[in-house]
Amino acid sequence: MKINFILLFLFQPFLFFQSPSSFQVEASHPGLKENPQHLTINISEDNKYTTNVESVICFTNQCKIITVTLEWDQFGDFSALIIPKGQALEKYVDGKALDFDQEDYQKLNQIIRDPFSILDGLTYNDLQLDEEEGLDGYSGATKAFITEKDVVVGATLSCFTLWHWVNSREIKSAIRQQSLSHLQKEEIETLMNVDEERVISYLLEYFISNPKELEANWVYFLGKANDLYASEIKELLQISDEEQQLQLLSMTFKKQSRQLMIGHILENPSFQEQLLEELNYGDYQEVNMLTTHLSENHLINDAIITKLLPLLDAEDILISRNVYWYLSDFQLSKENEKRINKFQRKKKKYLQ
Are 171 and 164 in contact (CB under 8 A)? Predict the structure, then answer.
């Protein structure tokens, strides 16, 4: 029987009853001479992904090695380190081998959960020790760049070993892909009611692989329009149609996100007049993106004129001048020409 020495579990309401019970992963570890390693990832009924590894990669024959279980959730995020009942991790302090105490486990938890840990840059050679330098990398070749805050003192090798397994890109990606490949409709609906950032990217990844299902679930992304990162917006624009993109724009108020969407929409072969209804004409960048596109493609029509002509009276001279320059390149009606000429006389000093 195994017990969990570190409280790492998060609430997980997502179940996969149709997925296989295990699968194989090839993963490399910088502490091992032979790579890649072949690991078996087991899937539990409550949607946990686990594998067993040795607690420490030891460069001598003097380390205490036990088999521990690492656990991830369906997103590929680490959730728990499970120690066999009656066993403990070991540290080497002041010449003595000691079992981890609760503070050591808590610190180890923080270390292996830190994706930016200094341990990421360590290699097998960094942790090579001379016999007289002791059992732990903390007091040996790594002394110059590993501090007490970076490791559990006396257990650098254990921290190094477990950090690289926990944060293995091969393992995390394989788990994520495995769970995505077995997502069911009911599970997608459950996930859509979970208010977490990582769920958005997870579901987006699913719909990228299953674009035919996007339309039926498009309302979800409309509701998350202002929570999307730029990279997610770019991916979403690639799998959505023009109507969906305009809907997404209408629901977005973040300036950079809007500009990203507008730029993509304007790349469409044919100009979408509906875009005229979604632009913020009080924002210079949006007006400039529109007029630049229209000018480069020599586009003008009544709908465009109706939207842009009133901007000659905009308080922001950058906006009104931009519209003036665009409209001046086209032959307009006599009435509209009068408005252009009036603006030219009134704002002459800004047009030089």
Answer: no
CB 160 within 8 A of CB 154: no
Residues in CB range of 65: below 8 A, 6 or more apart: 54, 55, 56, 58
Q: Running DSSP on this structure, what letter comes out for residue 92?
A: E
Which residue's structure tokens are 């308080």?
315
Helix (H) or strand (E) holding 266: none
User: For 83, phi and psi rounded to 5 degrees?
Assistant: -100, 135
pLDDT tens for 314-342 read 999 999 999 999 999 999 999 999 999 99
Residue type, 256: Q
Q: Is the pTM of this model over 0.90?
A: no
Q: Quote the tokens at residue 153.
A: 């003192």
Q: How many CA atoms lie within 13 A of 93 on its CB side?
A: 13
Nearest CA to 75 out of 206, 189, 164 is that of: 206
